[in-house]
Amino acid sequence: MIEKMTKYSFILLNSDKERFIADLTRLGVVDITRSVKPVDAASAAILAEAVGIKKQISQIEAGTSDELVKIREDIAALRRKYIEALPWGDYSQEALAGLREKGMLIRFHRIASKKFSEEWAGEIPLQVINETGGQTFFITIAEGGGRLPAALAACEVSAPEAPAVTLAERLELMEKAEGQCLEQISQARVSEIPVLKQEYDKVMGHLDKYLASAAADSAAEETLAVFVGFAPTSEDARLEKEFEKLDAFCLKEKTRPEDNPPIKLKNSRFAREFERITGMYGLPVYDEADPTPMISIFFLLFFAMCMGDAGYGIVLILAGIAIGKKWLKIEMFNGMGTLITILGVATTIVGLVLGTAFGIDLRTAAWVPGWLHKIMLPAKFPGTTYDYGMVLSIIIGILHLVLAMTVKAVMFTKRFGFREAVSAWGWLILIVGGISIALLALGGIFSPDVTRWAIIVVGAVSALGIFIFNKPGRNPLLNIGAGLWDTYQTATGLLGDVLSYIRLYALGLAGGMLGGAFNTLGTMVLGDGGVGRWIFFVLILLIGHTLNLLMCCLGAFVHPLRLNFLEYFKNSGYEGMGAKYNPLKNNN
Questions:
Q1: pLDDT for 144 beyond 80
Q2: Distance between CA 190 and CA 185 in Å, rounded?
Q3: Among 31-45, 134-148, 374-388, 486-500, where is mean pLDDT lowest?
């Protein structure tokens, strides 16, 4: 299925775009396109006003403001100064200033207590102030210009800005200011946010009108960067909180098909392995159905039927496991280990049902256990001379095409309305109704009279859709002509499409026959045995089956792709023009 997307539009000054891109890259889920619009001084001023209001709203909602941030920074700085001043105690700044006026130089020192020497007091006047935490705090007094001994100079520190008591008083005042600011913010949440939001909407409405009326060729010294982004709707709650922090105007909208959003597929673990096959043709557009679940079933079945050999399936299983575990490194198959294993399992099962393994016909092999014979299909379809595999291929092909036409009718109705899908429903009723009537009549459930009336009803209803109402409101004669042409194309096209599915039987048969031919050739060379004959026997089987396996794999990959891409996609009306979801991500 296609994951729902939400559309976001961002408007910001071009000078802020690099930071904006970095923020989106950090989020990792926004796929953006970008355009640039001219902006003059007036529109730049309007945008700046809107950004300022948005910042105020964000700060109030977050319980902060520029003033509060400044107060808290000042408190943190003051607290550090208070802690540094504590060991020096309460001293008189006036006394120190008086000594300095008399030419005395007061220096502050701190040193590890174990390194402090009492002898320093004999060299210069010294006073110990405090000993704490293994540190000794002291001051020295000398006449201006006096030099300190080297040991004392090494432990000199800056004087405290003020005594600890004074700093504590300042800290108390700052904390009171912080509390008042928080109270103001709390009150503003109730009283100011609604007003600010109204003002913000008013300013942005003014900007929208201004840009709409501005001439496209107006001169501009600066530009507005306009980003349109898409992100999964499942990320809405997280992104709304993140976008509130950006200095940009953000508009959130429900994505519409005409927005051509990027496509992100969301499938089961099994179907996800086949998304690469969908991508080879093209991703669906936003309002199309994701064909991956259908492809996962039919591509798997088609591949297994084209291979048609249980032995080769086992080889694929082993190869897939080896690639997945990185025991076998083949660049072109990187990341495909699980898919190859799944294809191998399906091939093994279908090969056993069809009764072939390494070119050996298991139906006639005496060593095959009885329970295995019970799950094998007979060689010929009951009551006919046709091979069971050929009939089965045609039946599967009809089912595949009917499902495609059903998808087309349903999706056309959903996307364009029933009026545009009348013809598709007409053909679906004709084909499905015709097949159903035929099966019920052959099974004896419908009597000849009931069958005749059923054919009349189905034919009449489908004819109205195909020939009369294929384009409601148009001239009926034109509708009839268009219906006749559509009938010719559909009839010849469907016949060719159904016959295309015989390739499933033909490729499986060819691979089995070629494998059997290598077995026969090896047996002929082996003869009565002997070391030399055994070597050639092994070489023929090894080389022959390796070549046959590679050719079978090539055919089993290409032809199922063709059946899905041409037959299924054509009859289901699939466009495949979607762009891949490619969000900005930090790959560093």
A1: no
A2: 9
A3: 31-45
The angle formed by the CA atoms of residues 503, 506 and 512, to the nearest 5 degrees, is 140
pLDDT at 218 over 70: no
Return the residue matching tokens 């098909």.
Answer: 257
Q: What is the pTM of this model?
A: 0.63
Provide Rg for the chain, Cα atoms.
42
Contact 398, 507 (CB under 8 A): no
Q: Are 467 and 480 a contacting pair, CB within 8 Å?
A: yes
| DSSP codes of every residue in 50-103 | HHHHHHHHHHHHTT--HHHHHHHHHHHHHHHHHHHHGGG-S--HHHHHHHHHTT
Question: Which of 80, 85, 77, 82 minimizes the C-alpha distance to 160?
Answer: 85
pLDDT category at 279 given cuts 50, 70, 90 is confident
441, 451 contact by CB (below 8 A): yes
Contact 569, 281 (CB under 8 A): yes
Q: How far apart are CA 516 and CA 212, in angstroms?
A: 75
Do residues 490 and 470 make contact, with C-beta atoms less than 8 angstroms apart? no
Dihedral sign of CA atoms 424, 430, 431, 435 in order: positive
CATH architecture of 5-40+214-259: 2-Layer Sandwich (3.30)
> What mean pLDDT is reported for the chain?
82
> In the block, which residue shows the tokens 């409101």?
473
Residue 26 — very low, low, confident or very high, per pLDDT cuts 50/70/90?
confident
**What are 2's strand-pairing partners?**
265
Q: What span, in angstroms and rounded, lies between the C-alpha atoms of 421 and 406?
A: 11
pLDDT at residue 126 is higher than 70: yes
Tokens 């408190």, residue located: 75
Give the residue range(s) of CATH 3.30.70.120 domains in the chain.
5-40+214-259
Write the CA distances from 81 to 150, 157, 384, 388, integer angstroms. Answer: 27, 13, 102, 93
Alpha carbons within 13 angstroms on the beta-carbon side of residue 65 total 19
Q: Which residue is listed with tokens 């466009």?
A: 575
Helix (H, G, I), strand (E, B) or coil at 366: coil
> Quick one: tokens of 521?
């050739």
Q: How far is CA 36 from CA 23, 24, 248, 260, in A?
A: 19, 18, 15, 19
Q: Do residues 316 and 545 touch, judged by C-beta distance below 8 A?
A: no
> Which of 170-179, 302-311, 525-534, 537-546 is least confident?
525-534
**For residues 9 and 253, is the Cβ–Cβ distance under 8 A?**
yes
What single-letter amino acid sits at 350? V
Sign of the alpha-carbon torsion through 398, 401, 403, 406: negative
10's enclosing H/E stretch is strand 5-13
Residues 6+ apart with CB under 8 A from 164: 82, 85, 86, 88, 89, 90
